[in-house]
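Re: weekly structure request thread

Next one in the queue (550 aa):
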Amino acid sequence: MKTIIVKRCALAVLVAAVLFTTTPTLANSASATDARADVMYEATDSPWLDSRGSLSDNSRQLVNQIKDSLYHGLNPANYRLDKIVELHERLNDKTLSLSEHRKILVNLKSVLDDSFYKLANHLGSSLVEGADVQPSNFRHSPKINAKSLYQSASAGDMSIDEVFDSIAPSHTDYVQMQNALSNLMHELSVGVGRTAVPATETLKFGDEHEVVRAAKLRLLETKDFDGSSSIDSRFDEVFRDAVVSFQARHHISPTGELNKDTIEAMNRSVTDDITSVVVSLERWRWMPRNLGYQRVIANIPDFRIRMHNGEQKIADMPVVVGKNKHKTPMFSETIKHVVAAPTWTVPASIANKELVPLERKNPGYLQNNNYELLAWKGGKPYVVPFSRVPRSAFNQAHFPYTIRQKAGDDNALGDVKILMPNKYAIYFHDTQAKSLFEKETRAFSHGCVRLGDPMRLASLIMQLDGVSPERTQSFLASKKTKQYDLDQHIDSHIVYFTTFADEDGNIQFRKDVYGYDTKITKALQKNSLLEVINSDKGQTILADVDNIQL
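Done, posted below.
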C-alpha cells in the first residue's frame, strides 16, 4: 500500500487483527464446519472466505481500505462499515443455530461484495463525473473493471490491498494531499480553534498593533512563522517574511503587508481547508493514472505551466489563460508539433465579433496589421486579395472568408506555438502582450495558453525528442513558418486545481478564477467526507473510525 502519513490509534490495528483472525464458533464445531462448507459452495468466487469457511485476510484488508477511505476524502459510512461490524459480532454468538449462522454468513458476503464494488468505483474512477459538475472539463473519469478485479482477488491472483493500490491515484501530488487531509482531520478532532485575526487597516513593517500579535499566533499555527522573534505586537522583519510566505501560498501579492486579503485568508476555518482538499482529491481521481514520463501540466487557477522529465521538474513558468467568457477547457492530449514563426488562423467567433467590426470602423485595418483573407476550394485554402473583396462582405452577419495573420513581429502568436491536436483548437504559444505576465491574475486570452518563456518550453520539447541544441536554436530562430513533428509524443494536461501541494509538500491555495468549486462542493456533499465534517460527527469521525468495537 502507498505510504500515507496518518495519526492512528494502535487499538485499531489490534482490533482488526482480532476481528479477522478469530474464527467464529457455533454451539458445536460440526455444525460450524457444515455451515461454512455450505456457504463456501455458494461463495467459491468470493475473496471473503478462506478454505475453512472463515473470514479471510482479504476481508480484513477491505475493512482497512474502508477505514482509509477517509484519507481519500470519502465517507467510510457509505461503505457499510457498521453493518460489517454488526454481522461479524453476530457470528460470534455461540447460541446461533445452523440456519441462522448460514444466513448471517451469506448476508455478510453480500455486504462485503457491495462495499467492495462501491469503494472500487469511487476510488478507481470518481464520486461524481467531472464533465457533469465542471463546465469545459472534457476529461472523463478513468473507467475500471471492478468485476474483473473482484475475480482476480477471488482467484488469489491479487490481494484486496493490491487491487485498491492498482486503481487509486498514486501521483505524488495526490499522496501529498492525503497527508494534508490527515493533518487537517487531526486538527479538527483535537478541537482547538484557530487563532482569529481581527480586521484592521493595512499594517506593515515597523508598525505596532495588537492585531500583529494575533497574526503571529495564526502564522505559528500555519508554520509560516517559526517563532524566532517575540510573539508581541511589533511588526518586525521575521514576521514580515512570514507574511510573505503565507501570501505566496495563497497567491496573494507578496507585499509583506497585513492587508484585507491576507487577513481573510488567515481566517479560513479548518472545514474550509478540508473542503478544498477533498475537492482537489476528487479532481485528481478524474485524471489519467499515467500522466506520462515526460509531461507538461498547465494549472489554470495557478496561472503556471510545469514540465517534468520523470520526477525532475525541468521547466516552470507563468502563463496567461482564457478570460471568463473564453474559459480555457480542461483535457489531456499529446504534444505532436512545434511550429516556428507561426501564422494565426483566426477563429470565426473572434473574426466576426472583434476583427471585422474593426475593419468596418477603420477600413484597411486588417491589411495594415498583416492579415490576409482565405477562401476554400477543393478542401484547400487560397489567398483572396483584399481588392477582390467587396466592402459589403464586411457587413454580413458571418464574414464569408477565413482571416489569417501572417508570420512576423506583430503576429499574435509570437515566435512559436506548440500543438497538441484537439477538437477545442487550444494550444500553447508565444505572445506579444508580455506585460500581462506581471499581473497576479492572468485570465486574458481567448482560451489558448500563452507562455511566459515559450522558447524554453519549445527547446526542451525538441531536445527531449533527440534534436541537438544547435539545430533546435536554428529552427526556433526561423523567420519563415516551419513545423517540427515529434517522433516521441509528450503528454500534456490542462488542469484546474485550486488547492495543491508544492515540491516541499506545502499546501497552496488559489482563487477559483472560473467559479467551478461551488458546484463540485455541492455535488460532493452527499457522498464524500464533506457530509460528515459539517455535522455534529465531524469532530469525532477519526475516533469513530479508529476505535470501532468489534
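The chain has 20 helices and 15 strands. Residues 5-31 have pLDDT under 50 and may be disordered.
Next request, please.
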